[in-house]
Model the fold of this input.
Amino acid sequence: MKRLTAVAILLLLSGLVQAVEPHGPRTPGPTSKPAGGVMPVMPSTIAAGSITVKAVQGTKGGPKIEAGEVTVELYGSGGKLNTIEAKLDADGMVTIEHLPLVVPFRPRVFVKHGGTSYLADGEAMNAQNPTQDITVTVFETSDKNPQWEVTMWRVTVQPGEKGEVKVTESMVLKNAADSAYLGAPDAKGRQTSIALALPKGAKIVEMSGALHDCCASVIDGRLQSKAPLSPGVSQLELSYTAPMSGGIAEFNLVAPAAAKDLTVFVPKGSKGFKSATLKADDVINMSNRPMQSYTISGLSAGQKISVAVGARPAMVTTGSIAVKAIQSTKDGPKIGTDKVIVELYGRGGKLRTIETKLDAHGVVMREDLHR
Done:
């Protein structure tokens, strides 16, 4: 009888709970209004995420940052999931809460200050990493060229098998001013901070660093960025393909600003390489492949460096053999610089005979074994 009474009490309590919350606990909505896209509905058992954005003034003596517009874009593996609009408070901060973590995402934050947007990318967010603080440094701007420079310029050219070459340009940029450079307006009022020349028929593969797909586009054969060039040191990387004609790719590398030096890397043995201004330098090992480097120093803004390169050389790998001789007779003499003969055999028989000698430790290694 007591057991039946207990069961009845539990059933009664369960009914009361359902009466109070017939649809389960309610999940509060986001404090910032989504501008587009649809995020998945967050189950009550899944933790919510939050992002705190803080804007910092980077120009000495610049005005206090407050009430600026903030845009947060959330990206998943398949692309953009949502866009959230918000505003900074009087302290230059805003927290965006109740972000569903059913689908992992990576945030990209834009803060608008003085009519210019500044960008910062966040880290991946999921149930294990539900919160994140993102600081965006903003600057006062100028359209006067601060005579920014390229302190390092590296270009890797990889001839492909589909009648094209892949070119990757990496640069370190320095803006010595204390304001962000926007570029002087052209006849159409467009401002360009960084412009990189592209070969005719080039196709963009990837960009990163100071180049963003949101703020860069190809106009008149140049990749033009309208993102502000912030003070200090920044980096960029651009990869693109250039077509071959008659088995040769010919193109110009154009300095976007004064550059201290330029180094071009090409697979050693590439056919048809030609450049009137680059000088051969060291051979560098990259990803277990020898790359011939060519250099030039002291480039002026707009200076062109012509390059021609053909098919890549056949891939040749090498192996190594280490031989160690051990004395197995008790109290026998120490193994010294004895003669060693190495015979290499393939399917058709003997390929090569190598004669060498052991060192004082009874060891020898040969690394020039082609295969």
